[in-house]
Write a sequence for this structure.
C-alpha cells in the first residue's frame, strides 16, 4: 500500500457537518427503545435528592451512557463521541460528559440496586424478543467469577491492594448466562472493594444471578459453574433453593486426597480431547487424561443438615518428568488431580467437559476489559458500580444485535461487533423529509448490517 497522491496534493479540513462515525448506533438505540429500556430506567431509577438536579431525566442519561459504551467508550469523556459530526441529526437528548459524570456520582447503593432491576428486566426482554439465548428453556449455565481492575487514582473509593500484590484494584464479580448454542450474556454484576475476598457475598449473588436466569427463560436444567473460591456450603444452598444444579472446583485437602486415593485403577476412563486445553497448574497443553467419579459428602465440618452428598468427578493428568523425557526410566507414574463437586444430571464425561467450559466467562471479562471496563472512571465507588451495571446492559444489547445480524456475528466478540456493525461511517442526506444514511461502498458486512437495521426498525408485531 502506498499514497496515491503527493504530499502537496492532499490536505484536510474538519468542516463536514453531515458525517457520522458510528452509524450502527441507529439500530442499537432503536432496538433498546423498542424493548423499553428508556421507560424501564424512568420507572425504576429514582434519584430525587441529588444536588443540581443530577438525577433528572435518568432515561436520557442512561441511554447516552449505554450507547457510548456500545461504541467503545471506556471513560466518561469518551461519551462526547455521541455529539460529534451529524450525530445530533440522528439522536436527540444526548447529554454532555460533564452531565453524565454528575449523574453517575448521584448514585447511592440503593440507586445501583434499582439499576440492577433494570438490567435484569431488560435481559429478560432481550431473551424473549431476540435469538439471544437459543435453547435456554432446556439447558442453561450460570457461571460466576470475580475479576480485578487496577486503578491509579489515589482518591478512588474502595481501591485497595488485594490479591494482586502491589496493585490497587477494585473487585467486580460477574455472573453470566449461556446455553450450549449461545455465547454468554451478563446475568448479574456487583462491585466490591479491592481487598474483598473472592467469595465475599457469593451466596446471595448466586441467588440473584439464578433469579435473573429464570426471569430470562431458563426454565429447564440450570447448572451453576464456579472455581474453588466458591466451593462452600452457602453457595450450594443458594443453588438448591433456586432449583439449580452446581458444578464447583474443589481444592485439594487431606480429606479429598484420601477419597481420590481410594478410587480403584479400573474406575478410570481414558479420554483424548480433540481440542487441547491449558492445564491451570502448569500452563501446559493437555490432550490426554483420565476421569473417574465417586460419591462424596462435602462440608462435614458444619452441622449435619448442611452436609451435601453428590458426585466428585476427578480428572487426572500425567505429571511430566523432565528426566523421563530425557531417556531415564520412570519409577512410578505421577498424576495431577482436578476434582469437581457436582450434582449435575449429565453423565460423567459430559459433566466434566461442561465444567471445563466454565472458562467462557473469561471471554466476557476480556470483552469488558477491552471496552468500558478498561477503566472504572470515577473516584466515587457507587458511580463505578453504576458504570459497571450500565456496561452489562450495553454488553447484552450488543450480543442481541449480533444474534439479530446472524451468521458468525451471533458468536463474535463485542469488539468484532463494534468494528463490523457499529463503527460504520455514514453521510447523512435528506430527501422527501426523510434521512438517508449513505454507507461505504463494498462494506464487507453490509448484509448483516442491513438485517439488523431491518429487524430493529420493523413495525411492531400485531
Amino acid at each position: 500500500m502506498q499514497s496515491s497522491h503527493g504530499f502537496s496534493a492532499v490536505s484536510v479540513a474538519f468542516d463536514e457537518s453531515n458525517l457520522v462515525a458510528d452509524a450502527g448506533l441507529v439500530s442499537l438505540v432503536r432496538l433498546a427503545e423498542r424493548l423499553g429500556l428508556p421507560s424501564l430506567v424512568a420507572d425504576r431509577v429514582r434519584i430525587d435528592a441529588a444536588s443540581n438536579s443530577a438525577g433528572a431525566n435518568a432515561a436520557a442519561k442512561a441511554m447516552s451512557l449505554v450507547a457510548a459504551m456500545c461504541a467503545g467508550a471506556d471513560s466518561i469523556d469518551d461519551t462526547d463521541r455521541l455529539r460529534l459530526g451529524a450525530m445530533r441529526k440522528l439522536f436527540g437528548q444526548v447529554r454532555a460528559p460533564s452531565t453524565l459524570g454528575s449523574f453517575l456520582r448521584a448514585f447511592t447503593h440503593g440507586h445501583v440496586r434499582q439499576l440492577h432491576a433494570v438490567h435484569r428486566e431488560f435481559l429478560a426482554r432481550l431473551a424473549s424478543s431476540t435469538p439471544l439465548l437459543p435453547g435456554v428453556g432446556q439447558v442453561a449455565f450460570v457461571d460466576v467469577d470475580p475479576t480485578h481492575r487496577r486503578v491509579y487514582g489515589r482518591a478512588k473509593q474502595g481501591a485497595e491492594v488485594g490479591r494482586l500484590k502491589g496493585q490497587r484494584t477494585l473487585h467486580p464479580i460477574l455472573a453470566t448466562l449461556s446455553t450450549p448454542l449461545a455465547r454468554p450474556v451478563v446475568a448479574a454484576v456487583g462491585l466490591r472493594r479491592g481487598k474483598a475476598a473472592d467469595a465475599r457475598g457469593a451466596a446471595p449473588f448466586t441467588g440473584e444471578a439464578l433469579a435473573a436466569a429464570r426471569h430470562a427463560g431458563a426454565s429447564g436444567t440450570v447448572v451453576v459453574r464456579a472455581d474453588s473460591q466458591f466451593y462452600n456450603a452457602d453457595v450450594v444452598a443458594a443453588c438448591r433453593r433456586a432449583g439449580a444444579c452446581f458444578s464447583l472446583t474443589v481444592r485439594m485437602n487431606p480429606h479429598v486426597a484420601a477419597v481420590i486415593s481410594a478410587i480403584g485403577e479400573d474406575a478410570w476412563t481414558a479420554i483424548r480431547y480433540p481440542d487441547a486445553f491449558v492445564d491451570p497448574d502448569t500452563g501446559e497443553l493437555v490432550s490426554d487424561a483420565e476421569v473417574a467419579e465417586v460419591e462424596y459428602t462435602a462440608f462435614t465440618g458444619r452441622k449435619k443438615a448442611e452436609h451435601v452428598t453428590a458426585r466428585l468427578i476427578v480428572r487426572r493428568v500425567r505429571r511430566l518428568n523432565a528426566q523421563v523425557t530425557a531417556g531415564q526410566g520412570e519409577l512410578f507414574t505421577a498424576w495431577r488431580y482436578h476434582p469437581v463437586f457436582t450434582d449435575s444430571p449429565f453423565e460423567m464425561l459430559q459433566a466434566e467437559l461442561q465444567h471445563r467450559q466454565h472458562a467462557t466467562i473469561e471471554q466476557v471479562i476480556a470483552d469488558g476489559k477491552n471496552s468500558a471496563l478498561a477503566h472504572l472512571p470515577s473516584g466515587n465507588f457507587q458511580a463505578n458500580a453504576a458504570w459497571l451495571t450500565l456496561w452489562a446492559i450495553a454488553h447484552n444489547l450488543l450480543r442481541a444485535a449480533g444474534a439479530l445480524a446472524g451468521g458468525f456475528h451471533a458468536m463474535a466478540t463485542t469488539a468484532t461487533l463494534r468494528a463490523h456493525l457499529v463503527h460504520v461511517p455514514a453521510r447523512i442526506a435528506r430527501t422527501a423529509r426523510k434521512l438517508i444514511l449513505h454507507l461505504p461502498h463494498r462494506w464487507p458486512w453490509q448484509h448483516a448490517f442491513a438485517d439488523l437495521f431491518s429487524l430493529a426498525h420493523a413495525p411492531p408485531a400485531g
Remarks:
- The two ends are 53 Å apart (CA to CA).
- The first strand starts at residue 19 and ends at 20.
